[in-house]
Design brief:
Helix content is about 30%, strand content about 30%. It is of the alpha+beta class.
């Protein structure tokens, strides 16, 4: 559930120019616990104040790997991906 609709809308609008430039974007959250039911993103350098580069994506890891990802400060949980056909 999206609790802060205004923040979500702002994040989506900040992502829009990158997606329009044929980049694939994702809205993600900082995990509060290790969970094997989600894909994890390891983020890299900032491309702007609102955008971070993605260095690695791990699709629904086993619990041990999820725990490892959780302890990495630069890891996020993928929630919503968006892009254009050109970036896929």
């Amino acid at each position: 559930m999206i609790r802060d609709i205004e923040a979500f809308q702002l994040a989506a609008m900040q992502l829009r120019p990158a997606v329009q430039a044929s980049k694939f974007g994702t809205l993600d959250i900082v995990p509060t616990e290790a969970a094997s039911g989600y894909g994890y993103i390891n983020v890299g350098s900032a491309e702007s104040d609102a955008l971070l580069a993605v260095e690695r994506f791990g699709e629904k890891p086993d619990q041990g790997t999820a725990q490892q990802y959780f302890t990495e400060k630069s890891t996020r949980v993928q929630t919503i991906g968006c892009g254009t056909a050109a970036c896929l």
